[in-house]
Amino acid sequence: MRLSVQRALSCLHLLVEGMSVRGIERVTGVGKRTILSLLLLAGRKCERLQDRRISQVKVRDVQADEIWGFVWCKQKTKNAKGYGDETGDAYCFVAIERHTKLVLAWHLGQRTVEDTEAFIEKLERATAGHFQLTTDGWESYPDAVSLSLGVRVDYARLIKTYHAAHPSQSPEGERRYSPSRVLEIIKDPRIGEPDEAAICTSHIERQNLTIRMHMRRLTRLTNGFSKKRENLRAAYALHFAYYNFCRIHKTLRCTPAMEAGVTKRVWELKDLLAY
Length: 275
Description:
Largest sheet: 6 strands, mixed
Order of helices and strands: HHHEEHEEHEEHEHEHHH
Mean pLDDT: 93
CATH superfamily: Ribonuclease H-like superfamily/Ribonuclease H
């Protein structure tokens, strides 16, 4: 790849600030294929960074949720046209520490038992000690949490029932484009003795907004969505690494990694590429 370090960093910086690949091509003059190759390279390095540095972190209160996206086309179109497994819905499982705002683990996959278990296994490796865990109402969480985390957690689900505007419109589909009216919230303790006052998913839901604001691939009703799953995975890896280590959180006045004691300084974007 014949590209100066400064131009490469400029492209990556624009990616983490929510610009599309085509937009970066127009602004920087760097070709689309080069930008995508750079993204894949950075994504691999950022995944290694996540695995090595976010490990055995002491936590108190963790929240987990899934954010929906898609590759090439939505699931309905994929099913109708018989496209391959690499297309259609793509759910990213994300876990955040409530107090430090550190993204502890993430996993790109489907809403399946296997992907839920893979995500919780990553969370187990990333954390140390006993902590409270809250997830949404996805039915695969309790068994996965029991299997991988067991007595290490006080675990509860926060189950929200949403109003559907039309009988044919599911609450899941409705929430993808506009906030639906919440009809009922149920706190469902499953393991240990979770503090009822701390059973909450507000912080991880706010993190989902941060993701959509800083990743063009997740912006609603645009054509900036991912055409390949490997590119989406790389974009997530870059986003979370930048969020944890480089971006100063306005509430914390430092990066989440600093607040969690993972590092003592604000990293530059180029530091992410050292792994």
